[in-house]
Write a structure and sequence with these properties.
single chain, 9 strands, two-stranded antiparallel sheet, 13% strand, alpha/beta, elongated, 326 residues
């Protein structure tokens, strides 16, 4: 399932208290989807890394009251309100820790602690085929979850990245090379590999304006040698593009690049300029591009500013390109 569909599924399952387990390879954003779904529903999120727990951590510590031993639950377990108890990396936890989670998932209890009404258990973990640290989940525990498989989706990631303060060249590159958004070989020897999480690292590093002399090494340290070489080569092209304001000033005669990578990069720059007063110029330039790039430019421009769809230029362009759009 693509990320937005998992978020939609969580919004259906969490209100009815159904435990959910999200499976996916490392670095794809499983925990971010859970956090975003909880935030969208106005719910509190308690994020517990199960792999860091000892078996006794969930039960708490014993205390003596009037000669009787009672268990004091840990402070990180919710006591009231409504929310999501997120057990991340659950299947990476040792078997004894997973066993301690049995009662919490099955009966909503651990020892003398009881999960309050209004709280739902959601868990996540890597697949056994991903060469990550995992322990086989006992069938009794697995049977209590609804299992969702996480599928990396380029459009969902680009939509999320558009709300971050990432440099334009990152989104343009992922559009040009979508297969590099996530390229993980469980048998590979590289420590770093391309993933949504590692590209997020790249975006944040580039936002810090590192010196050109070390930029490639930083990118390589996040996404690996092959992806870093392609990305830094793309960035050289991107950073030598013409000024988008000059194109918008004279869209009818501005040059149209022949290289697909350059067009991808230019579309990203122009889409960032979308507004009501630039709609005519963007549409005019999009009409001169190959149809697939024209659709890309207009679609991303509308995503930047919905006012684009109210312009007469957009209406004319949509009518002229109806065969491509529909």
């Amino acid at each position: 399932m693509r990320p937005k569909h998992i978020a939609e599924a969580l919004q259906s399952l969490i209100p009815v208290g159904q435990p959910v387990f999200i499976w996916g390879p490392p670095g794809v954003g499983k925990s971010q989807v859970v956090a975003r779904a909880a935030a969208d529903m106005g719910l509190e999120l308690v994020d517990i890394r199960a792999v860091l727990l000892d078996p006794v951590d969930l039960r708490g510590l014993p205390t003596i009251e009037q000669g009787t031993a009672r268990w004091c639950p840990p402070s990180f377990l919710p006591q009231s309100g409504r929310g999501v108890l997120f057990l991340d990396e659950l299947n990476a936890a040792p078997p004894l820790v997973q066993a301690a989670c049995y009662q919490l998932v099955l009966d909503r209890k651990v020892g003398e602690y009881e999960l309050p009404e209004g709280w739902t258990v959601v868990a996540a973990g890597n697949r056994e085929t991903d060469r990550a640290v995992t322990h086989r989940m006992p069938s009794a525990l697995a049977n209590r979850f609804v299992h969702l498989d996480f599928e990396v989706n380029t459009e969902d990631w680009l939509e999320w990245a558009g709300n971050q303060a990432f440099p334009s060249e990152l989104a343009a590159f992922i559009r040009f090379r979508p297969n590099l958004l996530h390229s993980f070989d469980p048998q590979g020897s590289e420590k770093a590999f391309p993933s949504p999480r590692s590209w997020e690292f790249v975006g944040r590093m580039l936002a810090g304006s590192p010196r050109p002399a070390i930029e490639h090494d930083l990118v390589r340290g996040a996404v690996g040698e092959g992806a870093a070489a392609e990305f830094t080569g793309f960035c050289k092209v991107f950073r030598e593009l013409p000024d988008p304001d000059r194109i918008l000033d004279d869209p009818a005669s501005a040059a149209v690049p022949e290289d697909p990578a350059t067009i991808y990069a230019l579309c990203e720059l122009l889409a960032r300029k979308a507004a009501r007063d630039t709609a005519e110029s963007i549409i005019a330039y999009a009409s001169r591009l190959p149809s697939e790039f024209g659709v890309l430019l207009v679609r991303d421009s509308v995503r930047t500013d919905r006012a684009m769809v109210d312009s007469p230029a957009f209406t004319r362009w949509a009518a002229d390109n109806s065969a491509v759009l529909f």
